[in-house]
Amino acid sequence: MGKSKQIGNHKSDKKKNIAKTWKTKRRTKDLDEIHSDMTPTNAAKLLKQEVDYDVTGSAQHYCLHCARYFVDLKAMKEHFRTKVHKRRLKQLREEPYTQAEAERAAGMGSYIPHKAVEVQTQQVEEEMS
Ligand SMILES: [Zn+2]
To answer: Is residue 40 part of a domain?
Structure first.
């Protein structure tokens, strides 16, 4: 009799993971994480990753700003033209501004004027033409 009750219980460990997966599904990375990915050193590493067959496109086509992998160069270029990508670039530009504003609004005193961030789609190597 008590058996059926236990079934639901033993999955509780999995539930925790589901909550995490759900969150990361919508936003692979936080914007501030992507901001740090955008530093030249990190960007270079991310854009030239080792071949990994477990990852989409063997990890060779990565959109830095969306933290997404693509099957091939063509798919990635198409992605660069999408709304999703353009919205992301815009978000990345605005984020530091928003944070500075929030701090000032909270009366944190030391208001540092925000530095305008120019966010551009990464350069793609034209290998096949
Ligand atoms: Zn993108």
So the answer is: yes
Counting residues of the chain whose pLDDT is more than 90, the rounded percentage is 44
pLDDT-derived band of residue 102, with 50, 70 and 90 as boundaries? confident
Question: What separation in Å is there between the alpha carbon of 83 and the centre of ligand 1?
Answer: 9
Mean pLDDT over the full length of the chain:
78
What one-character DSSP code corresponds to residue 112?
Answer: P
Closest CA to 66 of 49, 42, 90: 90
Classify burial at 72, counting beta carbons within 10 Å of its beta carbon; exposed 0-12, middle 13-18, buried 19 or more.
middle
Using a cut of 0.85, tell me whether the model's pTM lies above it. Answer: no
CATH of the domain at 93: 3.30.160
113 in a structural domain: no
Report residue 63 as tokens. 């959109």
Per the domain annotation, does 123 fall within a domain? Answer: no
Ligand 1 centroid distance, CA of 88 (Å): 7
Centre of ligand 1 from the C-alpha of residue 1, in Å: 53
pLDDT at 11: 54
Q: How far is the CA of 61 from the centre of ligand 1 (A)?
A: 11
- Show the domain range for 55: 28-105
